[in-house]
Amino acid sequence: MLHAHLTTLHVVSLILSAFAEQPELTPQLLAGSGIDPADLNCADTRITRTQELQVCTNALQLRRDLGLELGRKMHISAYGMLGYAALSSATLGDALQLLLQFPALLGTYFKLKLQVEGELAWVCASDYQHRPELEVFNLEMCLASLKLMCDDLLGQPLPLSAAQFRYNEPQYSGRYPLSFNCPLQFNATHNAFVFPAHWLQQPLPLADAVTHREMLSRCRKQNTEFTTRQAWLGRIRQLLSEQLTAPPGLEQLAQQMHCSPRTLRRHLQELGTHYQELLDELRFEHAKALLSQEDWPICRIAEHLGYSETASFRHAFQRWSGVAPSRFRA
């Protein structure tokens, strides 16, 4: 089953801003994502993680150290109600536990954990299960952002004792101290940063019990709505994925979802997508996977994805990725 968790345009917008002085690169950065530049002007737009990861893949081809830079720009204020709930918490430890309580609202690609061992506190990231070529990029962005959020919460830099990374030292490791000003260890057993545990008891300068209770209540409601929608969208994607060779029309899909076509259209619109967009996204993902297998000729891939003519598939793939299927395979 494919999962397409929804997220905001925040990361995509930050990526485009990193290349703001080169606006001619925008089509290259958005290629294959299905994101229209006009979408960036709508604050309520939601995209799938697949779309976000495609933009990250495009950007990483231009700058290998981009994850660190993006992490240094992802302040606590970018997380809406969750950010304000954290800012109004009593202590740093309370705020971190709150952030880790709502991973869907945090938008992380990792399982995050806060643990205390003796006099040290560890913020660890593990269980990455997305595009392998983006793991280092996403890890750098994740931990650099979490460190920045700690600084924002405290109103001062959180002193680190160490930072550890499970991968080889990258060529741009000289830029790591901008986020992790502490001893660095690569090829380690954890992805984590470490700080003196007594900082968890540090009172936060913006703590407010009344505001915190209100924001926490809203976060719980938003998390319930968000995860419910995610499950509903996941079911639709599962049904389409199982029937790609002969995909159901919208009315047939509505019957399988036990709702009316009108209700299905409305729910998809609320999620910021529509039937054809979901179908195209699934076809694109499957096409890329099959193109990586040399024993699948393009005509067979077209047939497998429900196209009656190979030319139609070639045209669609060109529109999705910006390149022909044969060039993508090469």
From TrEMBL:
Pfam families: Arabinose_bd, HTH_18. Keywords: DNA-binding, Transcription, Transcription regulation. Residues 234-330 form the HTH araC/xylS-type domain. The keyword Transport does not apply. Gene3D superfamilies: Homeodomain-like. GO terms for cellular component: cytosol. InterPro entries: AraC-type_N, Homeodomain-like_sf, HTH_AraC. The keyword Chloroplast does not apply. GO terms for molecular function: DNA-binding transcription factor activity; transcription cis-regulatory region binding. PANTHER family: HTH-TYPE TRANSCRIPTIONAL REGULATOR GADX (PTHR47894), HTH-TYPE TRANSCRIPTIONAL REGULATOR VQSM (PTHR47894:SF1). This is AraC-type DNA-binding protein. The lineage of its organism: Bacteria, Pseudomonadati, Pseudomonadota, Gammaproteobacteria, Pseudomonadales.
